[in-house]
Amino acid sequence: MFSNIMKVINTLKAIKSKFKDILSSTFDDDKLVEDLKTKIERIMNQLLGKASKSELSTKDADDFRMYYNHILSFDKHVRISSLNSRQVLEKSEEEIFKKVTSLRKDILAFGLDAIKVCNALIKMKFFAENLSMFDKTINSEIDEALKSYKEKQGSAGIVRLTVELEKTEVGARLINEHSCLSGEDWRKRREKMQKQDDLEYILERLTGDDVDKNVLRSRYTIFRSTYDNLVSINLNLFDKNADKEPDLEMLVTQTKYLVQTVIQTSKFVTWKSSFMDKIPELVAYVFAIWTLQKTEYYNTMRGIEAAKAYLLMPHVGQVIAIFRLLGIGYKKDSIIPLRNVSNSKTISNDLVNNLVEIGTGEGKSVVLAVTSCIFALTGVDVNCSCYSEVLSMRDKSDFAASIPRIVL
């Protein structure tokens, strides 16, 4: 907007200069600049007025964001010597971060009063969600506040916070988006899904076409044994005195070695029975890498009882769903060719189609990610779709460190 305004003013100035002896009357370009200056000064005052309020409502935040963006655009495209738009932007930002810093100090001062701490966190999150120009910095402040709070109050303090935060929508988003809280949330979800870690419970309730529960049972046993062994070995090798991730390069190499028996041509990728027999082991390797890549919750809980409850680990329902999607657990065995279409190796009708129902919060994204990884490792092009761009970006971020590492 301001870029176009300045172009118009400069063009009119050029016309006035060039044709001042021809045109009988000219416009007052100085007055145009003064009018613009007056309007900008009013917006600056409105911005600083909003920034200096002790608390901001949603409307205040909307107004602040609008005024801030106007002044930011003005600062980028317009130069009027008597207006210091940059100083106003910095002053407004300073006022906002005074509030954020004050809330961060309050969190530590409130100590064991979980309700007051949660209210302060929710206020900080309000600023992050409604003032998008500062969201990364404010979210970092929240992370640091939680880290300091945990150092002072311990894991028990974090547990109290999550209990209180999950009562509100904003609190739930805080739990989901900030790792210090997410670890406790993950542990609680694992407790709620204990039945889904019962193989017989899942198999008894599993329905579908040509289901061979004996095959699923035996394949899951192979998966579980391999997965537990890989995770246990690598956690034991993990330097427990250093805050760093395990070295997973050897595990990645071993994972890729498992797919060497897959036959690939220009038009087909064929999964023979010898490879199908290795799928439980391959799934175990992929899940082990995912678990060991996500040890931040485990790291922060080391030294407390049942620290492994904070590891991200697959439950039985997820693994059985992946097996069915990959053609395991059917009463009829067959060689599965994955055909090439339009120069892309994609799944043909020879691979049994499945509709897998997974409840809310039970890990659909993990099932999709690991299934996609298995296909990609064998040379198949994979596309995943989701109704929500927000969820897609969240999942992309969640798996960015593990899945590409295995496939590439």
Account of the protein in words:
The protein is mainly alpha-helical and about 400 residues long. It folds into two domains: about 1-190, no CATH class; about 195-405, no CATH class. The protein has helices at about 1-20, 30-50, 60-75, 85-110, 115-130, 135-165, 170-175, 180-190, 200-205, 215-235, 250-255, 275, 280-295, 295-300, 315-325, 365-375, 390-400, 405; strands spanning about 265, 270, 335-340, 345. Strands 1-2-3-4 form a four-stranded antiparallel sheet. The longest helix is centred in the middle third of the chain and has 31 residues, at about 135-165. The protein is elongated and about 95 Å long. The model is unreliable at about 300-305 and about 340-350 (pLDDT under 50). This is SecA DEAD-like N-terminal domain-containing protein. InterPro entries: P-loop_NTPase (IPR027417).
